[in-house]
Specification:
Helix content: under 10%
CATH topology of one domain: Thrombin, subunit H
Number of strands: 28
Largest sheet: 22 strands, parallel
Number of helices: 1
Structural class: mainly beta
Radius of gyration: 31 Å
Distance between the termini: 61 Å
CATH architecture of one domain: Beta Barrel
Shape: globular
Length: 580
């Protein structure tokens, strides 16, 4: 077997089935779909190699160590030729990706039975007009080359199903592109295309069209004729509007329009009733049409980086929506109908101007992640405690002074980030968050901690820097899972003896406090790797510090220690970098 194919990569495609290889107990590789069900039509193989992770071909070996190309329908093709001189009239597949080719190899034109031609990652600047002679060709990959244009004769490749032209320098497409009646996949991402020919609408079998990162300012009305289109990618262009014919793409499941200059959407968008993913981030949308509520199968809607200040009430009908991204907009209030979106799992509202949340947010029983970073919230609704599936809650840079007691009802919470608020105290119910792993409360105004904080028996990271703490409760010593503890920039005058109980601690920050000594129990932190004691009033360290054999960084800047003391500490810790 040629060595070139030992590094081939499986092509997983954008296809709906998303095949994944899996090795079974009998030693054979089989393909399974998203549900984990074996796809019998794909067969069983000794080896499966990866091609590219973008398209729809696989390189497989049987138990006789014979190599073949396999498409996603299970069709088998003979082993591809990896050298130009190996090409013959009987060749069905050619793999010449990344060969540094400056021009299209003329030998390829002598293979009339060629079905698969992989020429990605070369330096080919043009295609010969005689390419029309490859009438059997089904897959043509020419991504990452230097093509400036396509010959009109490309329209003669009537059996072509997949045409990959991403990352070239194309500015226009020939009108003959519309003659590729069997084409199902057309990738034109990362080119310089300024306009599309109206003939594009003749590609009735097209299911996937990728025009990401071009220079399109408008779409032809004929795009509505692509009635079998399922995925349409138009991100990072210069579109200011969409044609009303977009509504005719009734089989569309994914539509990406991020990074354009859209001011509004046509009402016809509501006709895309099978749409599951809609990306509209980084546009200039000020409002959404009421018809968006008709997209009842929508699962993901991204509206970040727009100018939205309100949502149409019809969005309450999106009961299948799982992810809603509304960050970087101009929302001051969140509508009450948000509670009707009962399937929501992710809700991002970061960088808006929200001053309050409606109690109805508590109706989102399936919510897993809620991001409210950088708003103007001064309090949370009591109903926040009803989000019993919530795992991640982001609240940094608001104006919160406290949590409601109901916060303790969030039994599944693993991350709570409330940095840069105005918290003066924590409710005792915080100790009920038994699954919490990260509690981030730096840059608040906390003067004390409740004893119940020691009940957070899963906690790994606790950040309390830049508060007003004068002491820490004894119960913190009970958090045996803690690996990182930050207490810098507080008003601590001593570190309690029980700190030595934190056997798994790896990072401890106590800089910028008023410590005059450390307890001898500090030597019990055998896993400690980083200890920051900068800017305190320490004149020496306890001899037990020499027990910290895993310590790699010790920061002592800003302490009144003599040079001899520093030398002694360095002698105690030969494997540690002491910064003074």
């Amino acid at each position: 077997m040629k060595k070139i194919f030992a590094v081939c990569l499986l092509i997983l495609t954008y296809t709906a089935q998303a095949q994944i290889r899996k090795k079974f107990p009998d030693g054979k590789y089989r393909f399974v779909d998203k549900q984990g069900k074996v796809m019998q039509n794909m067969g069983a193989w000794k080896e499966v190699f990866f091609f590219d992770k973008q398209y729809s071909l696989f390189y497989v070996k049987n138990f006789k160590k014979e190599g073949f190309v396999l498409d996603f329908k299970g069709q088998i093709y003979v082993e591809p030729k990896g050298k130009v001189e190996e090409i013959s009239p009987k060749t069905e597949a050619v793999y010449l990706m990344g060969k540094g080719l400056k021009s299209f190899p003329s030998q390829i034109l002598s293979a009339p039975q060629l079905k698969i031609l992989l020429l990605d990652k070369n330096e080919i600047a043009e295609l010969p007009a005689s390419i029309e002679g490859l009438q059997a060709l089904k897959w043509l990959y020419l991504g990452r080359n230097r093509l400036l244009q396509l010959p009109p004769s490309i329209g003669q490749l009537e059996n072509l199903t997949t045409l990959i032209l991403g990352s070239n320098k194309l500015k226009r497409l020939p009108s003959s592109i519309g003659q590729l009646k069997n084409l199902t996949t057309l990738h034109l991402f990362d080119n310089q295309i300024v306009a599309l020919p109206t003939s594009l609408g003749q590609l009735k079998n097209l299911t996937q069209l990728d025009l990401t990162k071009n220079q399109l300012t408008q779409l032809p009305d004929d795009i509505g004729q692509l009635i079998h289109l399922k995925q349409l990618y138009l991100s990072n262009n210069q579109l200011t509007r969409l044609p009303t014919s977009i509504g005719q793409l009734i089989h569309l499941k994914q539509l990406s329009l991020a990074g354009n200059q859209l001011i509004q959407l046509p009402d016809d968008i509501g006709q895309l009733i099978h749409l599951k993913q809609l990306g509209l981030g980084s546009n200039q949308l000020t409002h959404l049409p009421a018809s968006i509520g008709q997209l009842i199968h929508l699962k993901r809607l991204k509206l970040t980086f727009n100018k939205l200040s309100q949502l149409p009430a019809s969005m309450g009908q999106l009961t299948n929506l799982k992810r809603l991204y509304l960050g970087y907009n101009q929302f001051i209030n969140l509508p009450k109908f948000i509670g009707k979106m009962s399937s929501l799992e992710w809700l991002h509202l970061d960088l808006n101007g929200l001053t309050q949340l409606p109690e109805e947010i508590g109706q989102l029983k399936n919510l897993i992640e809620l991001d409210l970073t950088r708003n103007r919230l001064s309090q949370l609704p009591v109903s926040i405690g009803k989000l019993t599936k919530l795992k991640r809650l982001f609240l940094p840079t608001n104006q919160l002074t406290q949590f409601p007691a109901s916060i303790g009802q969030l039994k599944e919470l693993v991350l709570l980030n409330a940095r840069r608020n105005k918290m003066t105290q924590l409710p005792s119910s915080i100790g009920k968050l038994k699954k919490l792993k990260q509690l981030l409360l730096s840059s608040n105004q906390l003067t004390q901690l409740p004893a119940s904080i020691g009940e957070l028996t899963s906690l790994e990271g606790l950040s309390l820097s830049m508060n007003l703490l004068k002491r820490i409760p004894r119960s913190i010593g009970n958090i045996q899972t803690l690996t990182s503890l930050s207490l810098s920039n507080n008003q601590l005058t001593q570190l309690p003896t029980f700190i030595g109980q934190l056997k798994n601690l790896k990072g401890l920050g106590i800089a910028n406090n008023q410590l005059t000594q450390l307890p001898t129990s500090i030597g019990q932190l055998k896993k400690l790797r980083s200890l920051n004691l900068s800017n305190n009033q320490l004149t020496q360290l306890p001899t037990s510090i020499r027990q910290l054999k895993n310590l790699k960084r010790l920061y002592l800047r800003g302490n009144p220690m003599t040079e001899n003391t520093i030398k002694q500490i360095k002698a105690w810790l030969p494997g540690c970098k002491v910064v003074f």
